[in-house]
Amino acid sequence: LQGYASEMDNPSLAHLIPSALQNKKEILFGNLPEIYEFHNRQIFLKEIEKCIENPEFLARCFLKRKEDLQIYEKYCQNKPRSEALWRQCGDSIFFQECQRKLDHKLSLDAYLLKPVQRITKYQLLLKEMLKCSKNSEGTAELEEALATVLDIIKSVNDSMHQIAITGYEGDVNDLGKLLMQGSFNVWTDHKKGHNKVKDLARFKPMQRHLFLYTKMLLFCKKREENTDGHEKTASYSFKNSLKMSTVGITENVKGDNKKFEIWYNGREEVYIIQASSVELKNTWISEIRKVLT
């Protein structure tokens, strides 16, 4: 923050800043100042240090700071935009100059990855602690703390996918909370009921990436694109959507325990959805049920 972000406001370096970076500080650094502020207050650190003698209280530190730790979610949601900007102007003289002054071996992007690594390290630490705390005091709280951190990581992961949705006319932020996302085989029947659904099973399924929100279910088609010499990035082109207030669900489809049905408007449209495993199917069904009830 001092060696790079502040230097973007340094008049003597202004001429070195590439035009693509003008007024884009918030995109490049996201809410890093907020994360810095949280740790700099050292409340979290001091609470954790108190646990050196009493490790069974560690989980409480995480549970107490549940809301605070969501600043990482915000940071990770911005990360794809930050990375795209870095790819555009990371090799500029401005960054080289800042790095030289700081005498850093690594360039800025390595440091911008730290918060993402930090939140994933927390879950590893909590998992290790759980291994050592078989049924002792604080085990239940440790499990709850781990679930809290995993929930933040899941949310981060889901929102990374959500950012890549293209072609949706509305604003995905209006669809409520993103509960689940994942890839499925999907068969559809749009006939007004006179065609038996079982005839459909012969046809080749479509590959669809589903996004389940509290208000809407989106069907997208996943596309992998090579970005100039970088790893493949996925994008999801929007195909259609179902309002959750108008759908029904059939939990079992004859002949395949990994399939379930979502239907619309009194079975006017039927979507047969096949998950990759029975566990995954059950997770989705329980989330959809929660929304419907």
UniProtKB/TrEMBL annotation:
PANTHER family: GUANINE NUCLEOTIDE EXCHANGE FACTOR MCF2L2-RELATED, RHO GUANINE EXCHANGE FACTOR-RELATED. GO terms for molecular function: guanyl-nucleotide exchange factor activity. InterPro entries: DBL_dom_sf, DH_dom, GDS_CDC24_CS, PH-like_dom_sf, PH_domain, RhoGEF_Guanine_NuclExch_SF, SOS1_NGEF_PH. This is MCF2L factor. Residues 1-159 form the DH domain. One of its GO terms (cellular component) is cytoplasm. The keyword Phosphoprotein applies. Residues 171-293 form the PH domain. Keywords: Guanine-nucleotide releasing factor, Phosphoprotein. CDD domains: RhoGEF. One of its GO terms (biological process) is intracellular signal transduction.
